[in-house]
Design brief:
This protein has 12 helices and 21 strands. Among the domains are: 204-262, no CATH class; 348-533, no CATH class. The chain has 550 residues and is an alpha+beta fold.
Length: 550
């Protein structure tokens, strides 16, 4: 792992004036070979089926009937293949001709489709992140695809494929500047440059491969093979052994997905957000603007515990909760890293931790157990509900975030900034009621992080239920607006920002949206003798929710 200052390889880039729409009637087209990059698999399939007979004939030493001297199929075969090629070429050209895009002061629009027209647009003030994606063939031709992640879209609302890589970088810089509230002089758009960056983390390939071999996939493989062998020996039959082949294929796919998504991983900080780059064959560059991360999850598998490695995932509006490998990679802030790496990235997401001892508090959340560093855990009387994890389950409250700790074999820590809490729900079934405990759920943007305080004392849960609603409403009133760079001059965006760190005392000073000095985690009494008299949290900032939620 390395930590050092680094400028982009080609330096900051300025937007190309031809990429900017000065009127509603001005549209631009994607690169002319974009249809080929998108449809090369179809061409490969056509070539395969067209040449399969010839290839099989060569293998077995026989001539194809259509290619023999007396064959009558040769002209027809050539004509059919030529016709298919012409149709595909015409289709590609029509697809390119009817695909246009436009970037205005408030929207990015994409029109596509030949027979069935499709018009998609995204408001710039709703853009959560912009990804620069380069599939393998696009890398060969120096092209890139822009994906615009929009709140509540579930998937990319707008995909712009494909542009020259330099044009894609300039267009992304322009859109991020507009989304951030920076005004652009239409006469001199080149004054806006892509924000410089400072590299924070870079993963070595050896760690990525080792972490994959020590992942939960390996545990699944070990238990799966053991179960197959036991059944084969018990039943005295070889039929269960046939399961090993699909099992091995599934495990190999999991290994490949982890390696390719973690390969060449780099994280950097810039004025426009956190930039993440990764990919082996297909490369992706993500830029998540400040304040758009709704929740952070830190997890550690049993085998990773021997190396002290962790994984960081985030909930970002627009990324959704899809279970595909691509969606999981987009929601991963750090595929594998040490405790120091996690704390470094956490300082980027939450510059003001809300406590004067952030390292001790977050370390207790990642590795600790029992009531230390401000954490409150499951009461001893309820240890039978979770005999292994009851000493780890717990939470801590700081001035700026709520920390939720859980898991014994698979350790987990969820960090939710107060202003990102959308609503809360208190759950208590008959068994929990018998032991006097309850679960408290925090509802945020959908994603891989599911904040849930498990098996906490019911009086403590009831009190936290009300107090967290008040904290969330107050934090939202203090938070900065969506256009975080509106008050900043354009020139200020080119300055290299310092890298926040919890080990630096100055980095713990509160930013403008959280003025005041950091404090210790808020103590919450383990028992509230009059829970029915607790003040209910205001709902004007939390939205209408069902009964029992706030």
């Amino acid at each position: 792992m390395t930590t050092h200052d680094q400028a982009p390889p080609d330096g900051p880039v300025a937007p190309d004036p031809t990429l900017l729409a000065t009127s509603e009637d001005q549209w631009s087209r994607v690169h002319v070979i974009s249809p080929l990059v998108r449809g090369w698999i179809a061409l490969l399939a056509i070539a395969f089926f067209a040449g399969r007979d010839l290839f099989e004939g060569v293998l077995i030493g026989e001539e194809s009937p259509g290619l023999s001297d007396g064959g009558v199929r040769l002209p027809w075969t050539i004509a059919i293949i030529a016709g298919v090629v012409v149709l595909v070429a015409v289709g590609f050209m029509l697809s390119w001709y009817f695909t246009r895009y436009q970037v205005t002061e408030h929207h990015v629009r994409v029109n596509s489709g030949v027979l069935f027209r499709q018009n998609r647009q995204a408001r710039l003030d709703r853009v959560q992140a912009i990804d620069v994606v380069q599939p393998f063939l696009a890398r060969v031709f120096g092209l890139a695809e822009l994906k615009f992640e929009v709140a509540d879209a579930g998937e990319s609302a707008v995909k712009l494929a494909f542009l020259k890589l330099s044009d894609a970088q300039r267009l992304r810089a322009t859109i991020l500047a507009r989304a951030a509230g920076v005004s652009i002089d239409p006469e001199n758009p080149e004054d806006i440059q892509e924000a410089p960056e400072r590299e924070v983390l870079a993963l070595q390939p050896g760690r990525v491969i080792a972490s994959t071999l020590l992942s939960g996939t390996t545990i699944f493989l070990i238990f799966g093979v053991a179960a197959v062998v036991v059944f084969a020996v018990t039943l005295d039959a070889a039929a269960p052994l046939a399961v090993i082949i699909p099992l091995a294929l599934g495990v190999a796919g999991g290994y490949w997905s982890s390696i390719k998504n973690g390969f060449n991983f780099r994280a950097a900080i810039s004025p426009d957000g956190i930039r993440v780059r990764y990919g082996l064959l297909d490369t992706r560059t993500q830029t998540v603007p400040p304040g758009r991360i709704q929740a952070v999850g830190i997890s550690q598998s049993p085998l990773w515990r021997t190396k002290g490695w962790y994984r960081m995932t985030v909930n970002v509006a627009g990324y959704g909760i899809a279970a595909t490998g691509d969606a999981q990679a987009r929601a991963t802030l750090l595929p594998v890293g040490t405790r120091e790496d996690v704390l470094q990235l956490l300082a980027l997401v939450l510059p003001n931790p809300g406590t004067s001892e952030p390292i001790e508090v977050f370390t207790a959340g990642m590795e600790g157990r029992d009531s230390i560093a401000g954490f409150l855990t499951t009461p001893r009387r309820a240890r039978w509900i979770g005999p292994f994890e009851w000493r780890r389950n717990g939470f801590a409250v700081t001035d700026t975030a709520l920390l939720i700790r859980s898991g014994f074999f698979w350790r987990k820590l969820a960090v939710v900034p107060h202003e990102r809490t959308q609503s809360l729900a208190l759950h208590q079934g008959p068994v929990y009621r018998r032991f006097g405990v309850a679960d408290l759920l925090l509802h945020t943007t959908p994603g891989p992080v599911s904040p849930r305080i498990q098996q906490v004392d019911q009086h403590t849960a009831w009190r936290l239920f009300h107090e967290q609603g008040v904290r969330a409403a107050e934090a939202r009133r203090r938070s900065a607006p969506e256009q975080w760079m509106r008050p900043v001059e354009v020139a200020a965006a080119t300055l290299m920002p310092p890298v926040p760190s919890y080990s630096d005392r100055d980095s713990r000073e509160a930013p403008d949206n959280h003025r005041g000095e950091a404090h210790e985690p808020h103590p919450i009494e383990a028992h509230d003798p009059h829970p029915e008299e607790a003040q209910r949290a205001p709902t004007d900032h939390l939205g209408d929710t069902p009964d029992g939620q706030r």
